[in-house]
């Protein structure tokens, strides 16, 4: 299934008074990594919203395990991959590595969404071309 990798450096504002990443910041890192994964597939959120007229892919479940803290100035690598593709939902795994060691692992379940005629957010089948790209070995 499709994979992507990105690097980032831990910023001062990512850290708590103990000089380690404040745990909610990891979820922001992983959300940005999901966006980067779709961009690597050739589908920006702007394209999804403007061209496809869909909302995007809201989160319906997320879980993380923390193995090693990261600190201000650390350079980390986040590896993201699609793990499952359903009719309207899909799974992603993010692994954050610090100095080559797995520091945090996160799984997400997201749903492809649009607004129905009444303006209510609703799941919708993942478009065929995007599904094919998700299932590819990018």
Automatic annotation (TrEMBL):
Keywords: Hydrolase. The keyword Cytoplasm does not apply. It holds the Pfam family 4HBT_2. The keyword Hydrolase applies. GO terms for molecular function: fatty acyl-CoA hydrolase activity. InterPro entries: 4-hydroxybenzoyl-CoA_TE (IPR050563), HotDog_dom_sf (IPR029069). This is 4-hydroxybenzoyl-CoA thioesterase. It comes from Marinomonas polaris DSM 16579.
């Amino acid at each position: 299934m499709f994979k992507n990798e990105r690097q980032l450096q831990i910023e001062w504002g990512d850290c708590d008074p103990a000089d380690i990443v404040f745990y909610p910041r990891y979820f922001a890192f992983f959300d940005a990594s999901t966006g980067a994964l779709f961009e690597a597939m050739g589908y920006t959120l702007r394209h999804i919203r403007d061209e496809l007229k869909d909302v995007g892919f809201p989160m319906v479940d997320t879980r993380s395990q923390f193995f090693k803290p990261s600190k201000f100035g650390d350079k980390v690598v986040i590896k993201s991959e699609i793990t499952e593709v359903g009719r309207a939902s899909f799974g992603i795994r993010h692994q954050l590595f610090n100095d080559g060691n797995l520091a945090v692992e996160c799984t997400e379940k997201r749903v492809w969404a649009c607004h129905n005629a009444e303006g209510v957010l609703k799941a919708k089948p993942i478009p065929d071309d995007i599904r094919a790209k998700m299932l590819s070995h990018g």
